[in-house]
Structure formats: C-alpha cells, structure tokens
Amino acid sequence: MRADAKRNYDRLVEAAREVFREQGYDASLDEVAKRAGVGPGTLYRHFPHRDALLDAIMQSWVQRVDEAVEKTLAFEGPPRDLLLGWFQEYVQLISLHKGGPAKITSAMGDPESPIYHKCQVLRGAHDQVIAALRERNALREDVETLQVIRLVGGVATVADQSELDLAAVRPLLEVVADGLIKA
C-alpha cells in the first residue's frame, strides 16, 4: 500500500472509531469520510461495505481481549469475584461503541456475520475463563460459553441502550454470576 493510501486508511479507521463511538454502528459513512478528510470514493475503495470497516476497527480490539483475559486469569481470589471481574471486562470490551453489545452478541452465534471470526477471539477468551473455573470446580456443570455470552451480552445491550453506567450494571452481572457459580 502506498504511503498516502496507508494514511487515508488509518485516518478512516480512526474517524470510524470516533463516529461509531458517538453515533453507533449505523452512523453515516459519509460522516466517517468527512471526519477523515477524504471523499466517499476513497472510503469505499478501502472499505467496500460497512462491515469491512467494522472489521478493521476490531483489529486493535482483539489485542484488548487478549490483555483482559490474561488479567482475569491471573486473579487469585474467589471464583465469583473472578467471574464478576471477567464480566465487567467483557461488558467494557463490547461496549466501546454505541450499539456494540447488540452487534457483537448477535454475531457470536452467526457464522455468516462478517465480524464472526473476530468475535470468536472473544468467545475463546470466555472459554478460557470458563475452563479455569471448571478446573476449580466452581461452575455448574450445565454452563455453556454461548449461553454466558448471550446473558452478559444481553445485560450489556440493555445498559448500552439505557445508557447505564458500570455501577448500575454490576448488580445485574452479580445475578448472572450467582446463577452460574456452584453454591
């Protein structure tokens, strides 16, 4: 990629992050191009459809997922606290952009979604947390990763649409954790 094309690409990704964070994933792509200081044609040459742009934005997100799961797995406290810590990290990861929780939670179970493969990184992180809790014999036997993802994603979606802060979300996550941890 030529240097000027790479600069345009990077500016488009950063502008899209800002616009999506403010307005959600359905925001105008013309607004993204405008903020990046390029024309719509340049945007569509780099990103032929919205999901290609979303995929590019999610690349740095993958690194955040890896860091969050490492932090969670290093925790040495009670299993419930470990699970709650992961849930809070998870909610923050999928809530970086308005509309993110619903989009990501839906994509988790949809192999046809253009962001499915990036979402599988997050699912793998969930699998690691669940495996660690199973090793400690702390989880109910019938707990499945996709169920947990959908439950926590549902809480995050409500929080996103209702503009709840993390303090208001925590009690909801506690209810979910209490339903998963062995008594």
Topology overview:
Blueprint: H1 3-23, H2 29-36, H3 40-46, H4 50-74, H5 79-94, H6 100-108, H7 116-135, H8 145-162, H9 166-180
Helix pairs in contact: 1-2, 1-4, 4-5, 4-7, 5-7, 5-8, 5-9, 6-8, 7-8, 8-9
Quick description:
The model has no long low-confidence stretch (mean pLDDT 91).
Description:
By secondary structure, this protein is mostly helical. Helices cover 76% and strands 0% of the residues. The longest helix is centred in the middle third of the chain and has 25 residues, at 50-74. The mean pLDDT is 91.
The CATH topology of the largest domain, please? Tetracycline Repressor, domain 2
Percent helix among the residues? over 70%
Tally of DSSP helical segments = 9
Strand % is under 5%
Chain-averaged pLDDT: 91
Structural class category? mainly alpha
CATH-defined superfamily of the largest domain: Tetracycline Repressor, domain 2
CATH class of the largest domain: Mainly Alpha
Oligomer: single chain
Query: What is the annotated CATH architecture of the largest domain?
Result: Orthogonal Bundle
**Mind telling me the C-alpha Rg?**
18 Å
Termini separation comes to: 56 Å
Write out key terms for the chains shown.
0% strand; 9 helices; Tetracycline Repressor, domain 2; single chain; 183 residues; mainly alpha; elongated; 76% helix; 2 domains; Arc Repressor Mutant, subunit A
